TrEMBL record, chain A:
This is 5-carboxy-2-oxohept-3-enedioate decarboxylase HpaG1 subunit. Keywords: Metal-binding. Coiled coil: none annotated. Gene3D superfamilies: Fumarylacetoacetase-like, C-terminal domain. The lineage of its organism: Bacteria, Pseudomonadati, Pseudomonadota, Gammaproteobacteria, Oceanospirillales. SUPFAM superfamilies: FAH. One of its GO terms (molecular function) is metal ion binding. The keyword Lipid metabolism does not apply. Residues 37-242 form the Fumarylacetoacetase-like C-terminal domain. It holds the Pfam family FAA_hydrolase. NCBIfam families: HpaG-N-term. It comes from Marinomonas polaris DSM 16579. It comes from the Bacteria.
From TrEMBL, chain B:
Pathway: Aromatic compound metabolism; 4-hydroxyphenylacetate degradation; pyruvate and succinate semialdehyde from 4-hydroxyphenylacetate: step 4/7; Aromatic compound metabolism; 4-hydroxyphenylacetate degradation; pyruvate and succinate semialdehyde from 4-hydroxyphenylacetate: step 5/7. Keywords: Metal-binding. This is 5-carboxy-2-oxohept-3-enedioate decarboxylase HpaG2 subunit. The keyword Metal-binding applies.
Length: 245, 255
């Protein structure tokens, strides 16, 4: 089953479909839920490896001991086919392909062993960001600009995603494949991330966790006029145009 | 006017608070204290300023920052007036932070400092608890320090902006079990309210109900289960909170 939300005149309508082709994909699509969106930064093996030296220098001094979390505020959330609006004077802007974990019921202090019981399903997230020069202070300026978090097009039931920790993630810019990764590159697995966050933050149905984004290499840079598509095996394809803010 | 949200007979009600600090329903009925539960008076994005009082910066051995140092909180951490916050077992240092909270009243994007005060809907009191044991040098202060369940008491109510003549000259005080522990004044803000609204609205769109916790002055101290913590902003409100142990919190969760 596919769960999604759409604008109809001035209303927000929640819908389900048995097959994805039944869904009319256009810019009336909204993010599939309206919950809080929490991201896990630095949760990628190659990215952490590339920062090994930086992690051991000031101001970080030592590598992170726990998953590094951040918040994508509600002004950043947009649906399928809605435009990512990028500023002209803030340097390069990068796509951030990631699996989105959609919480299905209230989760407080959940063990990794049964974490998937608290998951409704999965979605695709594009965690757009400016370049980060340091990870010392919260990334509000880099990550919380309006439209910087496309989510969708839908939530697919977890039952149809058998191996959430082994899903291919492909990023296309203007139909050219520019980047490939896989959820097997996460340092903390889907289950571990849910367990860690819920150890001190109660997650509610509809909350979304951005499992982890790869290193923002030049391949992932997006510019006005581009169309960026993130395709996650068995989950969906999220497409958004990029325009000047 | 003072507006609040409460839970009464399992229903969430928008209410007002009168001159005698009594809660009045939209039907004009006065509710007895104790017959309802205070909820956070607003919902929205939560911005918190770190090191926004020069004296507090010195206390933490930091130079005051050159631009506002903002972090975000998640709504799971919010609780209303007269509620309980738990202290994790096996930690050394959990402290309160008394803060003036600016509540946004209308949508704001690219607002100038000159116009910024027009976007303030009202003010309330926030207590931004932190568990210092969990600090790491990544996105500092991280969510485990600052965004924990029950760790952000706010309220009791929002007082309209027009009822506060000068938000940049308000005393802040924190009492633990009746003893004055923290004292400061919003005149010592490093970045004042117009500066913060201009800064944030340059990054993103602010919407009604968004909260800006403007930072805390010096005078931090550890709190322990059983402590009653009162944070007060002159003319804005008096926010009460009680610390409980993690085991008591977990017992309450399971019942």
């Amino acid at each position: 089953m596919f769960h999604y939300r759409q604008k109809e005149s001035n209303d927000v309508v929640s819908k389900t479909a048995d097959a994805s082709y039944e869904i009319r994909l256009d810019d009336t699509m909204l993010p599939p839920t309206s919950g809080s969106v929490i991201g896990v930064a630095l949760n990628n093996k190659a990215l952490a490896k590339s920062l090994e030296q930086v992690f051991n220098e000031k101001p970080h001094v030592q590598p992170p001991k726990t998953p590094v979390l951040h918040i994508k505020t509600d002004n950043t959330h947009i649906g399928y086919a809605n435009s990512i609006k990028v500023p002209s004077d803030k340097g390069a802007i990068y796509a951030g392909p990631s699996l989105g974990i959609v919480i299905g019921k209230k989760a407080t202090r959940v063990d990794a062993s049964n974490a998937l019981d608290f998951v409704a399903g999965f979605t695709v997230v594009n965690e757009v960001s400016l370049a980060e020069t340091s990870f010392y202070r919260p990334a509000v300026k880099a990550k919380c600009r309006d439209t910087f978090c496309p989510i969708g097009p839908w939530t697919v039931d977890k039952e149809t995603v058998r191996k959430p920790n082994n899903l291919s993630i492909k990023t296309f810019v203007n139909d050219a494949l520019v980047h490939e990764t896989n959820t097997d590159q996460l340092i903390y697995s889907v289950e571990e991330v849910i367990s860690y966050i819920s150890s001190f933050m109660t997650l509610e149905a509809g909350d979304i966790i951005i499992a982890g984004t790869p290193e923002r290499t030049p391949d992932l840079e997006i510019k006005p006029g581009d169309s960026v598509m993130i395709d996650i095996e068995g989950v969906g394809r999220l497409v958004n145009p990029v325009e000047q803010e | 006017m003072k507006s609040a949200r409460i839970l009464f007979n399992n229903e969430t009600l928008a209410v007002t608070v009168n001159e005698q600090d009594q809660v009045v329903t939209q039907q004009g009925k006065i509710l007895e204290e104790g017959s309802f539960t205070w909820l956070p008076p607003c919902e929205g994005k939560m911005f918190v300023l770190a090191i926004n009082y020069a004296d507090h910066a010195a206390e933490l051995s930091f130079a005051a920052p050159e631009e506002p140092l903002v972090f975000l909180k998640s709504k799971n951490s919010l609780i209303g007036h007269d509620q309980k916050t738990y202290r994790p077992d096996n930690i050394d240092y959990m402290h309160y932070e008394c803060e003036l909270v600016v509540v946004i009243g209308k949508e704001a994007k690219n607002v100038s400092k000159e116009d910024a005060m027009d976007y303030v809907g009202g003010y309330t009191v926030g207590n931004d608890y932190a568990i210092r044991d969990y600090l790491e040098n990544y996105y500092r202060p991280n969510l485990r320090v600052k965004s924990r369940d029950t760790c952000t008491p706010i309220g009791p109510y929002i007082i309209d902006a027009k009822d506060i003549k000068d938000p940049h000259n308000l005393m802040l005080r924190t009492y633990i079990n009746g003893e004055l522990k923290q004292e400061g004044n919003t005149k010592d803000l490093v970045f004042n309210i117009p500066h913060l609204i201009a800064y944030l609205s340059d990054i993103m769109t602010l919407t009604p109900g968004d909260m800006i916790f403007t930072g805390t002055p010096e005078g931090l101290a550890d709190v322990k289960p059983g402590d009653v913590v009162i944070t007060e902003v002159e003319g804005v409100g008096i926010l009460k909170n009680t610390i409980i142990s993690e085991s008591e919190y977990l017992n309450n969760l399971n019942n």
